[in-house]
Amino acid sequence: MELAVHFPNFTLPGGPEALGPALAATARAAEDGGASTFTLMDHWFQMESIGRSEDPMLEGYTSLGFLAGQTSRIRLGLLVTGVTYRHPGLLAKTVTTLDVLSGGRAQLGIGAAWYEREHRGLGVPFPPLGERFERLEETLQIVRQMWSDDDGPFDGEHFRLAETICTPRPISAPAPPILIGGSGERKTLLLVARYADACNLFAPDPSVVAHKLDVLRGHCDAEGRDEAEIEKTIIFNGDPVVDVDGFLSSMAEYAKLGVTKVWVSPFAPDPAAWVTKLCETAGPRLAEL
């Protein structure tokens, strides 16, 4: 199983001046420690499940561009981009730019968006959930078209593009991998089956993940998709450094289900040191699962 590091907390000692060095050091620690992926959130306000909306939050793709220059091997992405935040044509160009400048290390993580407060606060339209899923599917179609040889128009219900030119093309072959975040059985996992290279599931316990993967398998069968083509990933809630053996025992259960990547998050005053410790104590054993 691969280790991925998700960096959600920008409330760190030293104030704004310390954020750049801390973020860079943490990404380098993850890369040096063997983690496969480093991600940030795509929010403008901090999530209230972590802290206060007023707490520090950096814009995601600007931060990933900074990290592309601080690292050389680790894959970079957002976990996950809200479909409401950027026009899909511009999103495709943004991720393409990250992929080109990072040497082919970009990943597009995307979901239907949910944080209404930040939308209302900054004046961004927040359509009803059903419409957000419609926009998500059209966005996936547009991104895939822009990363193909088809630079013609796109005429959808919510988005209309006269041209889908995307030059330069991504370095990732055939394109940056698309990960869809969320566990919704009727819509989210159906979109995974249709469009995604990876899914990202909440993992309260293995039985829940097993059920979600069964649902995904059913969607893949209906769509004529080989379910084995889709990478299965989860988010771990907790601090694995506190109980490394317990963490690894839990991950072994998910590995049996076909999960191949787990995201963990440093909630520590020194996130780089936390990541270094985790990689040293858990990384090699996790890779054996």
TrEMBL record:
Keywords: Flavoprotein, FMN, Monooxygenase, Oxidoreductase. SUPFAM superfamilies: Bacterial luciferase-like (SSF51679). It holds the Pfam family Bac_luciferase. Residues 22-234 form the Luciferase-like domain. The keyword Oxidoreductase applies. This is LLM class F420-dependent oxidoreductase. InterPro entries: F420_OxRdatse_Rv1855c_pred (IPR019952), Luciferase-like_dom (IPR011251), Luciferase-like_sf (IPR036661), SsuD_RutA_monooxygenase (IPR050172). It comes from Paraconexibacter antarcticus. Transmembrane segments: none annotated.
